[in-house]
């Protein structure tokens, strides 16, 4: 079985409401206000940020487009974009799960919607090549989840058939897309619940 990890909110912290409340405290006094801002900034990873995710526009163009669309000062938008790496802290429970799965002999891969600058940061900061046999970043293949194209590209990259893959992702739409293509999948909420599911499926020892 090839086990495939999403990155944001699965292996690395990604919680826009608290992130924006932290880095844009003058605009978001708490996570409720941060969540409202996140809808405007990230547009549910469609629009401007979706194009950035797919590598169709660069960071500078993304900032230009968000500024034109929202009227927020461009320098504030750039400051938020520059702060994203500080949000991407390792989720230790998932890192431990990776080590357990590797010890059981499973081949691990990743499939992540990630703009190229942040993909570069993760590769330079964390031992991805030690953890994963291979992986796909959306920003480098110009496709993003939940489109079928990126799942097909991933299977080719992983050298796998759909039924040979177990996928962990935190977005219901991505899980639904994977299952529709014949992948086994788990909607990730916590490392502990993911471990329970992997154990039930016989991928980790009880």
UniProtKB/TrEMBL annotation:
Annotated protein name in UniProt: Haloacid dehalogenase
Segment forming the signal sequence: none
Top-level lineage group: Bacteria
Provenance organism: Roseateles chitinivorans
PANTHER family: ALPHA-D-GLUCOSE 1-PHOSPHATE PHOSPHATASE, FLAVIN MONONUCLEOTIDE HYDROLASE 1, CHLOROPLATIC
InterPro entries found in the cross-reference section: HAD-like_sf, HAD-SF_hydro_IA, HAD_sf, PGP-like_dom2
């Amino acid at each position: 079985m090839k086990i495939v990890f999403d990155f944001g909110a699965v292996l690395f912290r990604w919680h826009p409401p608290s992130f924006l409340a932290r880095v844009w405290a003058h605009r978001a006094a708490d996570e409720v206000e941060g969540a409202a801002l996140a809808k405007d900034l990230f547009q549910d990873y469609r629009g401007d940020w979706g194009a950035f995710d797919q590598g169709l526009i660069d960071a500078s163009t993304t900032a230009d487009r968000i500024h034109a669309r929202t009227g927020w000062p461009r320098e504030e938008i750039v400051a938020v974009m520059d702060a994203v790496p500080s949000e991407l802290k390792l989720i230790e429970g998932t890192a431990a799960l990776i080590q357990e799965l590797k010890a059981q002999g499973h081949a691990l891969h990743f499939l992540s919607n990630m703009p190229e600058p942040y993909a570069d940061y993760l590769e330079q900061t964390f031992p991805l090549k030690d953890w994963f046999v291979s992986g796909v970043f959306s920003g480098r293949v110009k496709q993003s989840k939940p489109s079928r194209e990126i799942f097909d590209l991933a299977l080719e990259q992983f050298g796998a058939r759909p039924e040979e893959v177990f996928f962990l992702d935190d977005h219901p739409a991505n899980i639904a897309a994977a299952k529709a293509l014949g992948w086994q999948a788990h909607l990730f909420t916590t490392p502990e619940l993911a471990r329970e599911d992997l154990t039930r499926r016989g991928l980790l020892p009880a």
